[in-house]
Structures are given as C-alpha cells and as structure tokens.
Amino acid sequence: MKNEKLSKKEYKLSPETIDRIAAEIETMCAGYKMDRTSAIRYRISVEESLDIWMNRLGTGCTVYLEERKKLFKTYIEISAEGSRVNPYQLESLEFNGESRESMLLRIGLIPAYYYRNNINVLAFSMKKKAVNPLVMLLAVILTAIAVGFAGKYLVPAGIITSLSENVIGPIEDTFFGVLSCIAGPMIFLSVAWGIYGIGDVYTLGSIGKKLLLFFLKVVFLFTLAGTVFYPLLGPAITSGEVHQSQFGKIFQMLLDIFPHNIVSPFMEGNTLQIILLAFLIGLSMIFLGQRTDIVAVAVEQINLIINFLMDFISKLVPFFVFIVLVQIIWSDSFSVLTQVWKFAIVFLIAAVLFMAVNFAYVCMKNKITFMYMIKACLPSFMIAITTASSSASFESVMSTCQKKLGITNSLSSFGVPFGMVIFKPFTAMYYLLFCFYFASVYHVQVSFGWIVIAIIIAAISAVATPPIPGGAAATYTLLFLQLGIPSEALAVALAVDMIFDFILTSSDMTALQLELFHISGKVNMRKSLQKPANNPQNNAG
C-alpha cells in the first residue's frame, strides 16, 4: 500500500506554537482512541523535544506536523530542517543519552528519532486502545468450544475429518512456519540491539556491565529454583541413560552453543547459538563505536521491520488459537487444555513463594522493614497487574525508585528501562514450569541433561523475549523446538499466556524495583529514603 499523506501543517517554533503542536498531538491521539497514558506521554515527549529544537535550531525554525497512513497504520511525523539534533541525547544524564533512548524506544515510551536529508524527524504510530486481553481470550475460548462441540456432534464425521486434514491442518502448519521463520531473526536482533543499547564502553564498564550481571544472576537463580516444582509437573525421568556420563552430555551441550557457521543457528532454530551470536555482535558494536555506525543503523532498521511484521502477526494469534482449539476438540485432545489448571496452581504457588522470599531477602540485606517495601512497590504493582503493560507502569516505577527507594536519578534513568527489556525472572520460571508441564502431557523423554538444558534455555529465552506484542509467541516457538516439545503445545501456551501475562508483568516489574534498590546499595547510588509519617524508623542502614 502506498504511503498516503492525510494532513500536513506548518509552524514557526516558539513557546506558543510548541503548546499548540503538543495539544494537536494529544487531540490526534484522542481521535484514534489511544490509551490516555500513552497520549500524555507522547505529548510530554514532543514538548520536551521541540523545546530542545527551538534552543538548538533557533526560534522561528520551521516545523512540519504530518499525519500519514501506511500499511493500514497511521503515523505522526514532526520534522525540522537543520543540523542533527537528537532530543533524547540529553547532556544532563550521567550516562550516555543514546543508551537510554534506545531502551525507552524499545518499550514504546518515546517517539523514534532519525535524521535524513538534513531533516530531523520524530515519528510514532497511532496505537488504538487495545481490547482487554481477558475479554478477547474469553471470547475466543467460548466461541471455539461452541464451534468445536457443535461440529463434533452435529456435522458428519467425514466432513470434520476433511476440514481437519485439508483446512485446519495446513493453516496450522503455515502459521508455525511463519513463526519459525521470523522467530530466529527477531530474537537475534532484539538481543543484539538490546546489548548495543547500553550505549558505549564507558556506560558498559561503569554501570551497564554490573546491571547486566546482577540481572542475569537473579534470572538464572529464579529459573534454577523453579526445578523444585518438577515432581509436581514433569514426567518420570528416563533411566535408559543412567549409565552414561551426564557430565559429558552437559559439557557437549556447552560446546554446542558455538555454531559451526553463521547460518545454521537460524536454519535449525538453535536458541542458544542465536543468542550467543547476538550477544557477541552487540558487544562488538559497543567496543568498535562509531566505526560500526552503519551496521548499527542497519540492525536498528531491520529490527524495526521485524517488529512491525511481528506486530502484524500477533494480531492473528487469537484466530490461530481459535482454530487450534477447535482442532483439539475434534481430535479428542481437549484434556490437554482442561488439565492446564494443574500448571496454573503450581505456578501461582511458586510465584507467591518466590516473591515473598525476594522481599524478605532484600529487606534483610538492606535493613529495611517489610511493610515499607510493600507500600513502596504496591502502586506500580497495581498498575501492571491491571494493564499487563510494563510501559503503563513505567512512570510509577521511576517515581518509586527515585522518591520512595532513594535510588539516584542516573541509576534509575538507565536501570529501569534496561531492566524492563531484559530482567524477567518470573517469566523465566514460568517458561521452565511450562516446559515441565508440556513434557509430561506430550510424553517427552526427560533426562537430567534435558533438565539442565531446559533451565539454561528458559532463562535465556526470558531475557531475549522482545518487549513487543507477539514477542512471547516467537520465544515459545524456539523454546519448544529446542526441547522437543510438539508444536501443538504453542496454541495452549498462547491461550494461557494471555491470562498469566498480567501476573508475569506485575511480578517482573516488582522484582525490578527490589533488585535496583538492592543494587543501588552495593554500588553506592542510593540517597536517603522517604520516611513515612507514621513510622520514622523506616530508613536504610
């Protein structure tokens, strides 16, 4: 579809016109029924950006506000001719502004900035307020059950068989194929751009490396701790390999992380190899700096293309879940879905237990009361659990970290968006328990070596899950492929994920606040805590 220009307005930059443009942006967002929080966030970002342009490019500089439509999506562009002025590279930040910009852009909190043909451009899409995922899931499941059982008992068996083999089966295979095709490049680009987004060697060495190591350590600890629930979900461990060296198998697995060539990881869907390549390339771009600017731009732009495609594919997920649920009913495999309650109960118990242990550990180590931490983290937890959106809770998390937990602005400004991208300990544990459950349901042969591989892949997959709609679908595809779980499990995983996304988002965001508070004490980047009026003794030691 061609790039259709819907409107274009010209302004001369001044304090008055900045207010007019920002108000126009908010009006446009309201017209497209965008979420109120996102609309206000875009308005504030535009105001700050235009103020920087006015100071750098001069009062009276010509600015254009354009509304465009491309591929069924509406985009807003604000452009100004002149020298390159990236409004997100703020000199006031202690750490490289580009790193913060990259993180905020990835989680959808600021418009994209780019510079082309001597023109500065801010661009963002008009995202309509999404239908509540729970409502969508309920509608899909009820409709699928109605259609499935109606077809099973009212339609001749021959027609049902024909539909299953000639219509639903090919659609399933095609969807799985599309996901497999895009999953590898998507995770590779997400990890590579996420690592490069740290900024530069100084940022990497001063705080980025410490945050990365702290975050990865906690994610792996949560995943490892999740194995205590294996007896409740997993199948019996096979004994045919008892006499073989488990150490040898694990050692070989570690060696297999290194690919023989750069193409095979994507062809075979080898998650560990893909992530290793992405990690090394991301680090290389950081150390080489400006010498890899062209490569960095290419990675960023290809990443945007892949994310755009995945965003489109994610809109088809409810339809895919519908046809797969119908197929499950017609094939007498409905028990796979009805038995998922066992996994749900085990995960909820594990999540509550691990959250309590996490709170207790941080409070004990930092000499702060349990109730103070709960009160501090509760507002952002409530936002996340009611919206299933880390972006929606961003401002609340930042406010909690800086005002209630005393974390310095420099650490929180970098650590919060960086953590929202890679710090997902509860998601990692969720992935692992799901793999245990599906291994039991689909009778996958499990050895101690398989469990070790599952721990590693689940943890890394959680870190690598792109923070965009449909990102989990791509992750499940590679995760199940690597562990020998049948592709039929994907539909059940996506259906259940729509519910548990609320719990995962709120749990991970709460864990992020706890971890940043703990880290701030270790790296001496914490100020005095706010003291509640009713308890003056709540302070950090």
CATH class of the largest domain: Mainly Alpha
Order of helices and strands: EHHEEHEEHHHHHHHHHHHHHHHHHH
> How far do the termini sit from each other?
61 Å
Adjacency order of strands in the biggest sheet? 1-2-3-5-4
Average of per-residue pLDDT values: 78
The main β sheet shows up as: 5 strands, antiparallel
How many domains in all? 2
Give the strand tally.
5
Q: Please report the number of helical segments.
A: 21
Class based on secondary structure composition and strand pairing: alpha+beta
Under CATH, the topology of the largest domain can be stated as Proton glutamate symport protein
Shape: globular
Judging by the overall fold, what is the CATH architecture of the largest domain? Answer: Orthogonal Bundle
Helix content: 55-70%
Characteristic key phrases:
541 residues; Heat Shock Protein 90; Proton glutamate symport protein; 2 domains; 5 strands; 7% strand; globular
Summarize this structure briefly:
The chain is α+β, with helices and mostly antiparallel strands.
Notes on the structure:
Residues 90-97, 240-245 and 531-541 have low confidence and may be disordered. The chain has two domains: 4-125, Histidine kinase-like ATPase, C-terminal domain (Heat Shock Protein 90, 2-Layer Sandwich), CATH 3.30.565; 133-522, Proton glutamate symport protein (Orthogonal Bundle), CATH 1.10.3860. With 541 residues, the protein is of the alpha+beta class. It starts with a strand and ends in a 19-residue tail after the last helix. The chain is 67% helix and 7% strand. The chain is globular and about 75 Å long. The protein has a five-stranded antiparallel beta sheet with strand order 1-2-3-5-4, covered by helices on one side. The longest helix is centred in the N-terminal third of the chain and has 40 residues, at 157-196. The protein is built from 21 helices and five strands.
